Amino acid sequence: MRESRPRGRFARPVAGAMMASAALLLSGCGPADETPVLTWYTNPDDGGQATLAQQCTEEAGGEYRIETSVLPTDAASQREQLTRRLAAGDNSMDIMSLDPPFIPELAEPGFLAPVPDDVVEATTQDTLDGALAGATWKENVVAIPFWANTQLLWYRKSVAEEAGLNMDEPVTWDQLIEVAREQDKELGVQGARAESMTVWLNALIESGGGQIVENPEAPAEEVETGLDSEAAQHAAEIISVIGQEGLGGPGLATQQENESLLLFQGDSGSFMVNWPFVWPATNASVEEGALPEDLPEDIGWTQYPRMNEDEEPAPPLGGINLGVGAHSQHPDLAWDAIQCIVTPEHQAEYFVTNGNPPSSASAFDDPAVEEQFPMAPAIRESLDLAVPRPQTPYYNEVSTAIQQRFAPPGSVNPESTPAGTGQFITQVLRGESLL
Q1: Where do the H-state alpha helices sit in 97-256?
Q2: Dihedrals φ, ψ of 432, to 5°?
Q3: Which one, of 118, 161, 170, 174, lies nearest residue 304 by Cα?
């Protein structure tokens, strides 16, 4: 059963309205509301999408009403629910909040309604490069970027100063590892057997000039991986060293984004790769008295670490795109609603209130954005460098295989793990092995 109205602190009282509506219908004093209802399947947030649904409903002037239905918390469960509903021809899939890795899998079998050219023109003129890449399949925009996400390199200023690192200049993973060794500090990375491992590996390989999947548009039996490559071996070496030398902390094997943040906030913290949520989360903990008052003053940020000193990094790309189901009863209204949702003004508001960065370049110009997130310029720059995870209809198989073979990090062998994982992926896609 899906939830048809927002919950939590953004929810509005509805009991009285429902009783009044029922009384009206029973008394025969007026017609039923025939305003078309658009269901927006949202990923969990702090109520921001429900607020935007309400705002765009009001701006529609009676043309439509948007109701939200919250998807499960974890990405795998979101993907499963969306895929099952779309495959069954569910006509309530009017608007969907989609992770970039979902896009090819849903677009390839025709589960997504085509985006009208005028909608693409109206909504993507100032979209940042990384965000637009995550909404594209086979050179076509198949969903509209809403908010984008990327990882920065967060650092303790005191640690960088003691190491003599100039954080205004690019730094490499090898430098971070060396500092952690010398100062007996720990690196905030995500080593759990989870999607965060695929995020990390993909960023390392892409930053080194390689790719996990070399021909992402190919049919399953023809997919070729780039895991038997120098870039993949270098990436595996970084993961292996951090795992085997204990540089990622004692909980690395189960560590995802929240756990690595706690590590970074502690006495052994030094450097961390993570999403922008860490800034408001840290400040909230300081306000609650759970962390020292002066901790935020010791936190800096810069671009994702480089694999090679003379090559720009390829930070992870996350975020949400908005798509319309192929069987939606109201596709035209859904595209109108999406145009309302993704205006730069709404994206800026969503960033400030929910901590999720805009996909629109101009949204970063809102004064409230930089006041709330002083690292906003670094986020914007990172989003132009960001690279999606493999854009393939077989992403689930690729990511699951990586999680199985690259976790825990201490078990990774740079000589055999990458090539063995690539071989395993091709065997799975050809039906010769099971995940």
Answers
A1: 102-107, 117-123, 129-133, 157-163, 173-183, 195-207, 230-244
A2: -95, -15
A3: 170
Rg of the chain over Cα atoms, rounded to whole angstroms, equals: 23
Q: Which residue has the tokens 């860490």?
A: 278
Q: How far apart are CA 85 and CA 54, in angstroms?
A: 24
- Report phi then psi at 336, rounded to 5: -60, -45
Q: Which of 321, 325, 390, 324 is nearest to 356 (CA)?
A: 321
What is the mean predicted confidence (pLDDT) over 198-211?
Answer: 98
Query: What does the block give as tokens for 412?
Result: 């990774």
pLDDT for the residue 338? 98
The percentage of residues in the chain with a pLDDT greater than 90, rounded to a whole number, is 91
DSSP track, 248-296: T-TTGGG--HHHHHHHHHSTTEEEEEE-TTHHHHHHHHHHTTSS-TTGG
* One-letter amino acid for residue 187 of the chain: L
List of E strands, 210-312: 269-274, 299-302
| Structural tokens at position 308 | 């090679």
- The pTM is what? 0.89
Residue 410 placed within a domain: yes
Q: Are 309 and 170 in contact (CB under 8 A)?
A: yes
- CATH label of the domain that carries residue 161: 3.40.190.10
pLDDT in tens, 157-172: 999 999 999 999 999 9
Q: What is the pLDDT of residues 281-294, one digit of tens each?
A: 999 999 999 999 99
Domain co-membership, 241 together with 353: no
Domain tally for the chain? Answer: 2
The answer on 183 and 46 residing in a single domain is no
Q: What is the pLDDT of residues 73-125, one digit of tens each?
A: 888 899 999 999 999 999 999 999 999 999 999 999 999 999 999 999 999 99
Pairing of strands 140-141, 144-150: unpaired
User: What does the block give as tokens for 339?
Assistant: 């145009």
